[in-house]
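Lab notebook, design round three. We kept the backbone fixed and only want residue identities now. Task for the bench partner: fill in a sequence for the structure below.
Input structure tokens:
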């Protein structure tokens, strides 16, 4: 399988003929190659985007909306093909790709195709000054979208759809680890009638292709999802050029369980919030804090349920836990399990590599639960981003609030309680951009999405995304 760049509506090889291997996480084999694009490819993408911009930014909202909705429909009618590609490239269970990843990518286009027709700008009458102000929301120009490997098409389109809806032309780079569905998207965009140059997809390493995008002086905004260290690097490069930045970075999210919760619901959801997508979701509740009075019961019930999860080949419908995305990532996650042992953590279940018959070189790991005694230990502080969670008891609301907030991240938090006053108190005080109460990852695309502290800056979703991808210009007229 040879993946090419999609520039000006054409599929092309990289100019310098540099390629990378693409691995299948389920069996460890190389099954394709992808361009490692240079700044020359990014420049070509920029030239295409720049020349498409005047016409695209002046295309009526209805016409843009129609094209985006058409892309959504084509994704839906190609669901099987995209889901298989996503599962093969990323290692995630096919059931997840079919039920979550690809439907959500389609929803992203449909949602922003509709949202742009509802996006209103403000006007303010300056009473006493005989003046009226109105605010234009103008497309920025050429923007860059850089996405990670954990939810490949889901997050790629979460950026591209609002950028295009708002009238920008886009240079997008998917993760080099999971390029396949982004490659397939190009063909669908052409079929849907997206004009050439409006969306350009360049593939390659972060340090070559990604770097060329963030350093480009005329790419005026960067929307990035990925690791915190990369986010900090991007901010350093972009700041002197005054680029607009949206950074959605890592998380180490608390899952806080009070004794008065609906236990069954909490238990089932906590298994999902710990291990969905092999724990490789920035929103996973990777630190579980349980009120002391139900701690021992929870520990037994949770571990029993986790042991029932089936680790297996991603294409098997029975599989709950597929392969981790790459060998280096598997090694990194396993290192954390060793760190936990050295820090006096107790492995309650899991902790070992799994050999799946017939796919012995795949990157499989048991879902792992670690009991920790000190919330400041490394496994409780650092983002592991794999099927590994920590659990520990707490004795009071104040204590758990302090532990929950004592990490550098602040993306999401989950609370399990039926006490309304406590819900309000805790929600106000938790350091996070997203709080779920008695649920997890229930998403409404209109809501603001993003984190505080080392989890990033800016908000995606709904009109927040359309505001990010436009410049506000105020016009004041005296009459
Ligand atoms: O991410 P990177 P990695 C976390 C998770 C994971 C760690 C590292 O803890 O273990 O980050 O993952 C591109 N200029 N998350 O190394 O490198 C890169 O090519 C421009 C959390 O895979 O941040 C890819 O397209 N771009 C996260 C994207 O950035 C650069 C999801 C993300 O890769 C670049 C993924 C550069 N200099 C990992 N360097 C989440 N928040 O969901 C890299 N890239």
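Proposed sequence:
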């Amino acid at each position: 399988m040879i993946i090419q760049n999609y520039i000006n509506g054409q599929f092309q090889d990289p100019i310098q003929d540099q390629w990378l291997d693409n691995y299948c996480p389920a069996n460890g084999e190389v099954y394709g190659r992808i361009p490692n694009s240079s700044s020359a490819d990014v420049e070509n993408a920029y030239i295409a985007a720049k020349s498409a911009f005047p016409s695209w930014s002046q295309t009526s909202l209805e016409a843009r909306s129609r094209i985006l909705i058409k892309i959504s429909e084509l994704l839906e009618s190609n669901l099987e093909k995209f889901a298989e590609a996503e599962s093969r490239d990323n290692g995630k269970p096919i059931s997840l790709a079919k039920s979550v990843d690809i439907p959500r990518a389609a929803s992203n286009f449909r949602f922003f195709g509709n949202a742009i027709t509802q996006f209103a700008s403000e006007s303010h009458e300056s009473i006493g000054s005989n003046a009226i102000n109105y605010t234009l929301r103008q497309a920025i120009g050429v923007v860059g979208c850089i996405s990670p490997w954990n939810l490949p098409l889901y997050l790629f389109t979460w950026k591209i759809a609002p950028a295009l809806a708002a009238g920008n032309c886009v240079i997008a780079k998917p993760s080099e680890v999971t390029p396949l569905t982004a490659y397939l998207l190009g063909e669908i965009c052409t079929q849907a009638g997206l004009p050439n140059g409006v969306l350009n997809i360049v593939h390659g390493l972060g340090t070559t292709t990604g770097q060329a995008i963030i350093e480009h002086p005329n790419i005026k905004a960067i929307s990035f999802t990925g690791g915190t260290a990369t986010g900090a690097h991007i901010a350093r490069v972009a700041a002197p050029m005054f680029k607009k930045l949206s950074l959605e970075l890592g998380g180490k999210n608390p899952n806080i369980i009070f004794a008065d919760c609906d236990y069954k619901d909490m238990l089932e959801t906590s298994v999902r919030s710990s291990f969905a997508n092999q724990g490789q979701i920035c929103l996973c509740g990777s630190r579980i804090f349980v009120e002391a009075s139900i701690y021992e019961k929870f520990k037994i019930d949770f571990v029993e349920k986790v042991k029932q999860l089936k680790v297996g080949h991603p294409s098997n419908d029975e599989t709950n836990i597929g392969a981790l995305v790459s060998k280096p990532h598997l090694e990194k996650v396993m290192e954390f399990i060793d760190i936990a042992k050295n820090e006096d953590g107790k492995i309650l279940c899991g902790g070992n590599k799994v050999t799946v018959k017939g796919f012995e070189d795949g990157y499989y790991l048991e879902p792992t639960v670690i009991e920790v005694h000190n919330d400041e230990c490394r496994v409780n502080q650092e983002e592991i981003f794999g099927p590994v969670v920590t659990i520990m008891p707490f004795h009071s609301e104040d204590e758990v609030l302090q532990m929950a907030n004592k990490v550098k991240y602040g993306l999401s938090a989950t609370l399990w309680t039926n006490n309304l006053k406590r819900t309000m108190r805790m929600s106000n005080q938790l350091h996070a951009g997203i709080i779920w109460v008695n649920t997890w990852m229930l998403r409404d695309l209109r809501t603001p999405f993003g984190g505080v502290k080392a989890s990033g800056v800016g908000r995606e979703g709904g009109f927040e995304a359309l505001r990010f991808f436009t410049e506000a210009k105020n016009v004041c007229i005296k009459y």
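Keep this in mind before ordering anything: Residues 254-437 form a domain with the Aldehyde Dehydrogenase; Chain A, domain 2 fold (CATH 3.40.309.10).
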